[in-house]
């Protein structure tokens, strides 16, 4: 890339428009941009970067605005850069956003950023884009580097590289990451870390699945089974100590979960067998205890019922008086119902009368102060009310007079105040009228004098102007004489300097002599000036054309190399396209076939869970069908046994009842057998037994009864056991029959065989899914890659061939144009140098001749205008004219002010006289109005005072009378209401007394007490009915023979029987629960053991994948022991990049330091740097004089500058090679030279001068004064209070 021209407007430090001609600067190869600190040298570089990338380097890009603060408000900032890149001449114009004044009104508005990109085609500038993003993309593509890389490659910021040289490893890595793309390697690190995390997550998930199953097996096992397992494992460990390793296997589920699962299943099976035997023994014990408890409870219940009946009979006998009272109360309530309505009415009337009496008392109490006497009546209250209403009517008629009185008083006060004001105004007017006539006469006299002076001023000014013109012409005459002498000598010298052989038409150096010019004879040069100007124009036109030919000449040299590159790249692209197309012809068929196989495998995989569930359901139906057939046979047998047990239990019950009835009938004979003469009877206590009862033919004993009872209990227990067994078999048969779904064993077996076969076949097909999916991905990636390669190669081939055709046409066109333009000169540079020399000489001669002719003409004109007058005489006349004019001006200047004062005094006199007359008239009118208002005020006040009484106003008196009327009216109404309520109360009470006497009650209160509500009477009736029902029930219970026999029998120990039954039941429930748990646990553990096996089978390959991913991720991240440098992959790549930079820097550092210093890079860490990411960034400086390796921080300022400059140049070379962009033909080095001694400065300048090879231009930005004497080509940045400007041959 080569810069041609840069134009800045209101940008940075420059308020105006400044232009830099880089072509002119580039001819010298090395040029200097210098100026004082803060003048804006770096702004030139900022403008180049802003034009290309729309931003400025470093922290300056964060500035609020790029516009110059010194620029006029309406001048917008803009940068125009003309440059050539990759053979294309481009011109870009960028304007940043700025605040401009509004076109209408005041204030500012934002002007948006703008961009214009143009290309020079066929001698004209053609617009390419006006969008910032499009222009940025095009320039970035052509440049081949980012803004950061451009700043490092082209602008070479020395301060940054001095910091880079001394920086830590992390800081160096940050800079290199911005310049060199390591995104691929950081993405690879991240992918490996993510892959490690993902595989670890999958492995952990599968491991958690194994642990979850083992935890579920632990939870399903319970503490008892785990204790049994631990005991067996302890025995296995003892066996292992004795040498039996097989017995010790499976001690820890984390080590070998499958062996631990097998051992746990074996322990569960043993526990199932043991708990089943214990359950059978507990069931028998429970049946016996239940029978004993039921017999005891039945006897106790019969004894309780007999005792309760006796107690209830005694209670009923004691409640006879209560029943009589209930019947009496119900009779009185019936009679009181006839009197109750009148009693309630009398109570309501009494309440109303009391309330009316209280309200009347309150109202009369409030109105009592308004009535004469101690006990006002309804009539007296109403008389007082009428009197006050009449007074209110009279007062309301006087309310307008009261309002009028207020208005009159206000008007009277206003008139008094106005009289005071008018008296003051009259006094002020009289005082002013006494002085105004004198002031007016003085002003008119002074105005007349000022007008006379103003009339004389025009003549005096004309005299002064004439004197000034005479003096000016005399002085101009003298100056033109001196100019004529100088111009004649300069023209003679310029014509003498024209070399022999230079011609402009027939002009030669001898046609115009210096003697002619010095003598003032210019006729010989009049005709030569036109020819010289024509010669200059023709040569300047040719120079403009040669500027374009220079670029074409350079382009012609580049085209040959580009043609070879284009042909070579086109051949390579054709080979790549053919190879990719051959691969594309075979891949689709293979991919389609593999996709079909994958679809089948995935369909099979989707069906496998359903088929597995179908197998489980078929197996369950088959097992249920087998169990159903077995249970149906068992149920038929159990039902027959239940029927026999029921019959036997009924027969035993009948036998027991017969024995009990016979024993009760022969109970007297049994007691008679136990009587002993002389001993008391156990029943009556008598020692005499005159007539003992004789026994019947068959009289069963207590032993017979007990035997019958035992037989009945045994038959009942046998019946209950048979019923329990039938119920259990029926429940199990119903559950199992539902699962069998009415299928026979053969049908269920056939369905099971078919389901298992289909499941096995589909599982085998689905097993190939992962392999086929991976193959699909590989084939798809390969096909996409082949397509991309073919497309890329096709585009590249088309582009290379089109490029070749363009280059051939361009070469022919340029060759023809260069042959016409060069003539006899060998190249463009030689012809341009010769013509520029001729142009400079002609320009000097033309300017000199023209200046001499102009000087002669100017002198003759000045001589004719000035005449022979001397300068001293003219100066005296001018001073006298000026003094007279100043005096007249001072006097005439007072005229406007005096005229205005005269007019003001006359107007004020008339105004004061008018105010005095007006005040006098208004005073008389106001005094008359005041007197009239005073009379009306006295009349109204007397009238109102007579009717207001002691109240403040008529309104206050009306308010008081209205309140009194309301109190009197309320008291009269309340008194009348109370009298009416009292009469109604007395009438109601008399009616209630008459009704109570008629109903048989002595008083009204007695009748009220006898009244009962409906609920009370219903409750009394219900209680009488319960008494009758209880008597009948008690008699029936006492007549029951079973209760009588139970009362005679001994009291059973029910609590002991219940405790025994509870113990047996708890033991049975415990044994039953333990057996059920053991059986369920075994089934659950068997299912979990299968699940554990499958989970462990899935876990093993995932663990291996994670181990491999962990190793690779650790190696790339620098945390693995296999990584000898302990650095991430991206840091290693950056370290290698830094090594390339150091190698390129050492080529120049060796020369600049006279062989003393070299940079050394190694992949270790920077001294003192503990950050993990800083590895590979270490730099040391090898000192060839001492042989020691030095830390860069120990270098002096000059040594640091030389080293950092070499490092910056090396980095620029590496970045240019890395980016693959165009060669940078223009470079800038910014500051840092002030720290170098003279010898080192020579070496550095030699290095920079060597960069010019191949036509490269190097610009140095510095304020060091010594550089101005060493570098001829310069641009000076001049700092002024109004902003900076550029000066120099290449700036304007």
TrEMBL record:
<feature type="region of interest" description="Disordered">
    <location>
        <begin position="1058"/>
        <end position="1077"/>
    </location>
</feature>
<dbReference type="InterPro" id="IPR027417">
    <property type="entry name" value="P-loop_NTPase"/>
</dbReference>
<feature type="compositionally biased region" description="Basic and acidic residues">
    <location>
        <begin position="713"/>
        <end position="723"/>
    </location>
</feature>
<protein>
    <recommendedName>
        <fullName>Nuclease SbcCD subunit C</fullName>
    </recommendedName>
</protein>
<dbReference type="InterPro" id="IPR038729">
    <property type="entry name" value="Rad50/SbcC_AAA"/>
</dbReference>
<feature type="coiled-coil region">
    <location>
        <begin position="457"/>
        <end position="484"/>
    </location>
</feature>
<comment type="subunit">
    <text>Heterodimer of SbcC and SbcD.</text>
</comment>
<dbReference type="GO" id="GO:0016887">
    <property type="term" value="F:ATP hydrolysis activity"/>
</dbReference>
<dbReference type="Pfam" id="PF13476">
    <property type="entry name" value="AAA_23"/>
</dbReference>
<keyword id="KW-0175">Coiled coil</keyword>
<feature type="coiled-coil region">
    <location>
        <begin position="971"/>
        <end position="998"/>
    </location>
</feature>
<feature type="region of interest" description="Disordered">
    <location>
        <begin position="692"/>
        <end position="723"/>
    </location>
</feature>
<feature type="domain" description="Rad50/SbcC-type AAA">
    <location>
        <begin position="5"/>
        <end position="176"/>
    </location>
</feature>
<dbReference type="Pfam" id="PF13558">
    <property type="entry name" value="SbcC_Walker_B"/>
</dbReference>
<comment type="similarity">
    <text>Belongs to the SMC family. SbcC subfamily.</text>
</comment>
<feature type="compositionally biased region" description="Low complexity">
    <location>
        <begin position="692"/>
        <end position="701"/>
    </location>
</feature>
<dbReference type="GO" id="GO:0006302">
    <property type="term" value="P:double-strand break repair"/>
</dbReference>
<feature type="compositionally biased region" description="Basic and acidic residues">
    <location>
        <begin position="1058"/>
        <end position="1071"/>
    </location>
</feature>
């Amino acid at each position: 890339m080569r810069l041609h021209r840069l134009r800045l407007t209101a940008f940075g430090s420059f308020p105006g428009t400044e232009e830099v001609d880089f072509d002119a600067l580039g001819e010298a190869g090395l040029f200097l941009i210098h100026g004082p600190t803060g003048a804006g040298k770096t702004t030139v570089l900022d403008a180049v970067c802003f034009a290309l990338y729309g931003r400025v380097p470093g922290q300056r890009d964060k500035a609020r605005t790029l516009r110059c603060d010194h620029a006029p408000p309406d001048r917008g900032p803009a940068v125009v850069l003309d440059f050539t890149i990759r053979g294309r001449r481009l011109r870009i114009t960028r304007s940043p956003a700025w605040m401009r004044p509004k076109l209408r009104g005041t204030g500012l508005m934002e002007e948006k950023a703008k961009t214009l990109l143009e290309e020079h085609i066929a001698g004209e500038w053609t617009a390419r884009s006006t969008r910032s993003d499009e222009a940025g993309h095009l320039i970035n593509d052509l440049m081949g580097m980012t803004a950061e890389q451009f700043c490092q490659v082209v602008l070479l910021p020395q301060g940054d590289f001095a910091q880079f040289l001394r920086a830590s490893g992390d800081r160096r890595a940050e800079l290199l990451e911005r310049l060199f793309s390591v995104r691929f390697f950081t993405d690879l690190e991240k992918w490996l870390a993510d892959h490690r995390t993902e595989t670890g997550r999958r492995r952990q998930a599968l491991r958690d699945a194994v642990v979850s199953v083992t935890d579920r097996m632990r939870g399903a096992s319970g503490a008892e089974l785990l204790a049994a397992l631990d005991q067996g494992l302890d025995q296995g460990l003892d066996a292992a100590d004795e040498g039996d390793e097989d017995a010790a296997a499976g001690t820890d589920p984390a080590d070998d979960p499958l062996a631990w699962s097998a051992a746990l299943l074996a322990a569960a099976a043993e526990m199932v067998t043991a708990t089943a035997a214990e359950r059978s023994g507990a069931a028998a014990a429970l049946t016996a205890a239940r029978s004993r408890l039921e017999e005891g409870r039945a006897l106790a219940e019969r004894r309780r019922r007999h005792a309760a009946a006796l107690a209830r009979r005694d209670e009923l006998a004691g409640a006879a008086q209560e029943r009589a009272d209930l019947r009496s109360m119900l009779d009185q309530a019936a009679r009181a119902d006839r009197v109750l309505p009148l009693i309630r009415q009398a109570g309501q009337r009494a309440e109303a009368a009391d309330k009316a009496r209280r309200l009347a008392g309150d109202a009369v109490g409030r109105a009592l102060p308004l009535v004469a006497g101690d006990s006002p009546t309804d009539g007296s209250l109403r008389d007082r009310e009428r009197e006050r209403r009449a007074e209110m009517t009279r007062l309301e008629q006087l309310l307008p007079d009261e309002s009028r009185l207020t208005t009159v008083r206000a008007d009277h006060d206003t008139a008094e105040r106005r009289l005071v004001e008018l008296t003051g105004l009259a006094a002020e007017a009289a005082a002013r009228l006494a002085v105004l006539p004198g002031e007016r006469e003085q002003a008119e006299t002074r105005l007349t004098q000022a007008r006379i002076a103003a009339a004389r001023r025009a003549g005096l000014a004309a005299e002064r102007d004439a004197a000034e013109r005479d003096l000016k012409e005399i002085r101009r005459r003298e100056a033109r004489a001196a100019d004529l002498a100088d111009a004649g000598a300069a023209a003679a010298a310029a014509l003498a300097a024209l070399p022999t052989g230079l011609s402009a038409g027939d002009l030669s150096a001898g046609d115009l002599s210096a003697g002619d010019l010095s003598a003032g004879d210019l006729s010989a040069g009049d005709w030569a000036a036109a020819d010289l100007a024509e010669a200059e124009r023709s040569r300047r036109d040719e120079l403009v054309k040669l500027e374009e030919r220079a670029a074409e000449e350079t382009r012609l040299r580049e085209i040959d190399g580009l043609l070879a590159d284009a042909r070579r790249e086109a051949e390579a692209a054709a080979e790549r396209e053919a190879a990719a197309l051959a691969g594309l012809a075979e891949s689709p068929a293979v991919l389609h076939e593999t996709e079909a196989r994958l679809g089948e495998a995935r369909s099979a995989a989707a069906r496998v869970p359903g088929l597995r569930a179908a197998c489980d359901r078929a197996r369950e139906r088959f097992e249920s069908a087998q169990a159903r057939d077995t249970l149906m046979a068992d149920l038929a047998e159990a039902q027959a046994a239940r029927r026999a047990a029921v019959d036997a239990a009924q027969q035993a019950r009948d036998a027991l009842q017969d024995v009990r009835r016979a024993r009760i009938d022969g109970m007297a004979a049994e007691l008679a057998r136990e009587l002993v003469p002389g001993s008391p009877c156990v029943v009556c206590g008598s020692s005499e037994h005159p007539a003992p009862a004789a026994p019947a033919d068959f009289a069963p004993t207590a032993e017979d009864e007990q035997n019958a009872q035992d037989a009945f209990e045994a038959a009942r227990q046998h019946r209950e056991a048979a019923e329990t067994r039938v119920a259990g078999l029926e429940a199990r048969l119903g559950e199992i029959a539902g699962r069998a779904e009415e299928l026979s064993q053969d049908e269920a077996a056939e369905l099971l065989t078919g389901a298992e076969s289909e499941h096995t076949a589909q599982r085998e097909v689905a097993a190939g899914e992962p392999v086929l999916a991976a193959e699909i991905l590989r084939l798809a990636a390969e096909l996409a890659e082949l397509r991309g390669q073919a497309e890329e190669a096709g585009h590249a081939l088309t582009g290379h061939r089109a490029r070749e055709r363009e280059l051939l046409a361009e070469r022919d066109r340029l060759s023809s144009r260069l042959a016409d333009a060069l003539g006899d000169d060998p190249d463009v540079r030689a012809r341009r140098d010769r013509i520029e020399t001729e142009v400079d000489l002609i320009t000097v001669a033309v300017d000199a001749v023209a200046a001499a002719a102009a000087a002669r003409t100017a002198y003759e004109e000045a001589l004719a205008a000035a005449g022979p007058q001397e300068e001293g005489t003219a100066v005296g006349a001018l001073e006298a004219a000026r003094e007279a004019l100043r005096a007249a001006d001072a006097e005439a200047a007072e005229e406007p002010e005096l005229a205005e004062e005269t007019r003001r005094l006359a107007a004020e006199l008339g105004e004061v006289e008018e105010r005095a007359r007006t005040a006098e008239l208004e005073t008389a009118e106001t005094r008359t109005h005041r007197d009239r208002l005073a009379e009306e005020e006295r009349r109204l006040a007397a009238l109102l005072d007579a009717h207001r009484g002691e109240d403040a106003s008529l309104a206050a008196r009306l308010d008081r009378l209205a309140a009194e009327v309301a109190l009197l009216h309320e008291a009269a109404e309340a008194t009348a209401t109370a009298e009416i309520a009292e009469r109604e109360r007395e009438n109601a009470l008399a009616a209630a007394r008459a009704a109570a006497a008629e109903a048989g009650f002595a008083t009204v209160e007695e009748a009220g007490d006898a009244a009962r509500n409906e609920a009370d009477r219903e409750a009394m009736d219900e209680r009488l009915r319960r008494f009758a029902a209880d008597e009948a029930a008690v008699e029936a219970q006492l007549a029951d023979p079973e209760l009588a026999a139970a009362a005679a029998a001994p009291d059973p120990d029910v609590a002991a029987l219940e405790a025994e039954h509870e113990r047996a039941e708890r033991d049975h429930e415990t044994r039953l629960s333990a057996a059920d748990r053991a059986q369920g646990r075994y089934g659950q553990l068997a299912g979990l053991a299968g699940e554990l096996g499958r989970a462990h089978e899935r876990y093993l390959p995932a663990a291996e994948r994670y181990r491999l991913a962990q190793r690779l991720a650790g190696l790339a991240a620098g945390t693995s022991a296999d990584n000898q440098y302990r650095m991430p992959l991206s840091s290693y790549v950056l370290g290698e990049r830094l090594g390339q930079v150091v190698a390129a820097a050492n080529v120049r550092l060796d020369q600049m330091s006279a062989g003393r210093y070299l940079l050394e890079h190694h992949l270790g860490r920077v001294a003192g740097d503990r950050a993990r990411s800083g590895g590979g960034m270490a730099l040391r400086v090898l000192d060839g004089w001492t042989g020691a390796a030095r830390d860069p921080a120990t270098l002096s300022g000059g040594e640091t500058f030389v080293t950092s400059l070499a490092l910056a140049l090396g980095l620029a070379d590496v970045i240019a090679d890395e980016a693959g962009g165009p060669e940078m033909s223009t470079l800038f080095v910014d500051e840092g030279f002030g720290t170098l001694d003279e010898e080192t400065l020579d070496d550095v300048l030699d290095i920079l001068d060597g960069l010019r090879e191949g036509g490269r231009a190097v610009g140095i930005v510095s304020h060091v004064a010594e550089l101005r004497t060493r570098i001829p080509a310069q641009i000076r940045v001049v700092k002024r209070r109004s902003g900076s400007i550029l000066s120099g041959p290449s700036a304007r």
